[in-house]
TrEMBL record:
InterPro entries: Aliph_Amidase/BUP, C-N_Hydrolase, C-N_Hydrolase_sf. Its EC number is 3.5.1.53. PROSITE patterns: CN_HYDROLASE (PS50263). It comes from Flavobacterium granuli. Gene3D superfamilies: Carbon-nitrogen hydrolase. SUPFAM superfamilies: Carbon-nitrogen hydrolase. Residues 6-265 form the CN hydrolase domain. This is N-carbamoylputrescine amidase. Keywords: Hydrolase. Pfam families: CN_hydrolase (PF00795). One of its GO terms (molecular function) is N-carbamoylputrescine amidase activity. The keyword Nucleus does not apply. The keyword Hydrolase applies.
Length: 295
């Protein structure tokens, strides 16, 4: 049953290591977040490995895991022990040839509250995700948990207002965005400030337009594992925003951190009463939104 107030956390980490070490590290950091009072805790995207999508290499499919195996077993036990909700983004092997960029939402008793498969899949230099990930087929969902109703989207989804809207319309208190985003080091000086600003602004806009809390959990660190490339410098800057887009907590660009903020459902309701964007939506006029382009 949702409470009127509960605390959420995003964990910002350097994950440029092997799966076993990343698992141990993330279990420890989730425990620390819970000890600091967090009740719903999110890890960054693809927590268990370095960001392998910098190249198209079939050997990287070995990093994937079947449903309800290593990650689920470990974090399910921890969620039950601590009595917290944990969002665990992972590389899912659904079957031979079908892989997803997914996230478990694990409830306080260790059970699965939900599964989300990333819907929007990018294909940019050093972000070659279309080679690895089949687009999600579960749709946009808000998952009831013992702490609150949680919406979970993943990284590239954060640029799409439709994804935020459809999740919020299902009653999500919070939109979590596990993320792996950073600068191409050779472009940072010219484009970096605007890229980072756009990233924050679009998600703050989702918070305002939907009257929801938004929480983004990003990586940090330079991941440069392909010879002859500059790699990706993950920009960190994880944050939690309130329902008017106000920043409640924000991390640095380069430190491992836990951010904690309080979700206040009375405040959320008050914001929506005063800014009734849901009330005034002209749903009778939105039919063309399902078209690729309006020619």
């Amino acid at each position: 049953m949702s409470k009127k107030k509960y605390k959420i956390a995003v964990i910002q980490l350097n994950l440029n290591d092997v799966a076993e070490n990343n698992l141990k590290k993330c279990l420890s950091w989730v425990r620390d977040a819970a000890n600091q009072g967090a009740e719903v805790i999110s890890l960054p995207e693809l927590y268990s490995s370095h960001y392998f999508c910098q190249s198209e290499d079939v050997d990287n499919f070995a990093l994937a895991e079947p449903l309800y195996s290593t990650s689920f077993i470990a974090f399910s036990a921890l969620a039950k022990e601590l009595g917290v909700v944990i969002i665990v983004p992972f590389f899912e092997k659904r079957m031979a040839g079908i892989y997803h960029n997914s996230a478990y939402i694990i409830n306080t008793d260790g059970s699965e509250a939900g599964l989300y498969r990333k819907m929007h899949i990018p294909d940019d230099p050093h972000f070659y995700e279309k080679f690895y990930f089949t687009p999600g087929d579960l749709g946009f969902k808000a998952f009831p948990t013992e702490k609150g109703k949680i919406g979970t989207l993943i990284c590239w989804d954060q640029w799409y207002p439709e994804a935020a809207r459809l999740t919020a319309l299902q009653g999500a208190d919070v939109l979590f965005y596990p993320t792996a985003i950073g600068w191409h080091p050779l472009e940072k000086e010219q484009y970096g400030e605007n890229q980072h600003g756009a990233w924050m602004n679009v998600m703050k806009g989702h918070a305002v337009a939907n009257g929801v809390y938004v929480a983004a959990a990003n990586r940090i660190g330079l991941e440069q594992y392909i010879e002859g490339t500059a790699g990706i410098q993950f920009w960190g800057s994880s944050f939690i925003a309130g329902p008017q887009g106000e920043i409640l907590a924000q991390a640095t660009h380069d430190k491992e951190e836990i951010l904690i903020a309080e979700v206040d459902l009375d405040l959320q309701e008050n914001v929506r009463q005063n800014w009734p964007f849901f009330r005034d939506r002209r749903i009778d006029a939105f039919g063309d939104i399902t078209k690729r382009a309006i020619d």
